[in-house]
Design a protein that fits this description.
The complex is a heterodimer of chains A (about 190) and B (about 180).
Chain A (H helix, E strand, L loop, with lengths): L2 H7 L2 E2 L16 E8 L7 H9 L1 H7 L4 E6 L6 E6 L4 E5 L5 H13 L7 E2 L32 H4 L8 H23 L1
Parallel strand pairs in A: 1-6, 2-3
Antiparallel strand pairs in A: 2-4, 4-5
Chain B lengths: L2 H11 L3 E5 L5 H13 L15 E5 L10 H4 L1 E5 L6 E5 H7 L3 H10 L6 H5 L2 E3 L7 H4 L4 E2 L15 H5 L15
Parallel strand pairs in B: 1-2, 1-6, 2-5
Antiparallel strand pairs in B: 3-4
The chains are: A alpha/beta (about 190), B alpha/beta (about 180).
Chain lengths: ~190, ~180
Amino acid sequence: MTTKTWNLFWGSNFVRAPLQNGVGRYVQQLQRITFKFCKTHGGSKGMREYIEKELIGFARENPGVVVYVKPRRHRSPCLKAEYLNGGEEYISTHVNTCEDIVKWVEYLRGRSGYPVERLRKYHHTDYPSIQGPWTPWIHRHPGINIKEYPCEELSAVQPTEISATQKLLELYEQQKQQQEGVGSTTS
Amino acid sequence: MSAARRVQQWATFGRMWYLYDGKWQNPLESADKIVPYLDGSHKPIFHPLNDSGDHVVVINSRDIALPGDEWEKRVYFHHTGYAGGATWTLAWQLHEADPTMIIRKTVYNKLSKNLLRRGRLARLHIFPDDKVPDSILKNVSAQMRQLRPVPRRLDHYPQEELENFPKIFDWPKDHVIN
């Protein structure tokens, strides 16, 4: 599948949280969860078991979530979750066991309500760089701004070792200094 | 986007103009140095999808130095497309005809082979001497270092420096050096 086809249907996004949720405080994003099931059908057996055993505990632990229980005859069970940002999610729980439904409810409770998309990056920061983004002028000598171009000084190769001519001149200078020193001590 | 962020964006993605002096430089080695500047891979923000190549202005391309006997042995091939339209031009002949061509062809050969190649080459400005139009020179804000030291001929030294150079002995008055 090409990226274009993928984006046509599923899209992609960066990691995000509604209003920086979880930084300093947490606001429950799940607002309402509806348990739809049948009282007689076998496909709803796990759902009926969940409602008997787990639902009261879930509602008690999550006072911010409205829990609806909606029996309907001869239709397969499902979970419908509605979120603070207007997002909705529907999950079919046909022939799921009680343990599966516990996991699905936990999944819906922790969601932000944004659609599930491919993440282009698995990390996000509001402060990408403390030092500031790179520019071409970073670690450059500011003197190059006021130079006249073309500039021989900036262009010429920096010698890594002294040349034979340079060495000869240095030896000559040393010799001259020594002779001067000898001359001054004798006089 | 605030004004500061906007200016930051310009600073990061702004195109630089580099000057390169081709005098006494091997064009084959120089191309290796110039190519990363043209395609932007010398920048830490480099990404194949972002257009971050810089401009490079090469001056003194007439004074480039090919190594060894390359001037006689290097051959540039061209075919007009017609039967019998093939020509083989020696490097020295090509250089006589157009002193910018050897550098341009060398850089073109070393650029990565994709659709961006021509556009990147268009950011390479070559001049046979050091006369660059002001419209181009005013953009230049940095200079690339040469790869080889420019040799200095004896008649390039000032007379004073030659006279003061240490000598073991003086030539006789009637000795003819040249």
